[in-house]
Amino acid sequence: MNKWAELLLGLILVVGAIVIAFYSQAWQLGVSWNFLGPAWIFFKGGLFWFIVMIGILFIMLGISDLKD
Questions:
Q1: By residue range, what is the domain housing residue 40?
Q2: Which of 3, 14, 48, 63 satisfies CB 3.0 to 4.6 Å to 55 for a cystine?
Q3: How do residues 9-21 score in pLDDT, each as one tens digit?
């Protein structure tokens, strides 16, 4: 992959994930025994960090290609 494309894709993934997480904050009121809700929240959190890490990986690959 092109070094500039890696940097651009990495920045888009990291910034996009942070913006989406910032604008999709939701607060749940009350406590219940609904386990599907917390599982869904856990999955969304894991997906967020997965996308951020992939973005950071692309940024690091782009930076290492710039040194060559």
A1: 1-15+35-68
A2: 14
A3: 999 988 988 887 7
Q: Is residue 29 situated within a structural domain?
A: no
In three-state secondary structure terms, 1 is coil
Query: Number of structural domains, the chain?
Result: 1
Structural domain includes residue 20: no
Q: Is 8 helix (H, G, I), strand (E, B) or coil?
A: helix
DSSP class per residue in 22-49: HHT-----S----SHHHHHHHHHHHHHH
Residue 8 included in any domain: yes
Neighbours of 57 (CB within 10 A): 13
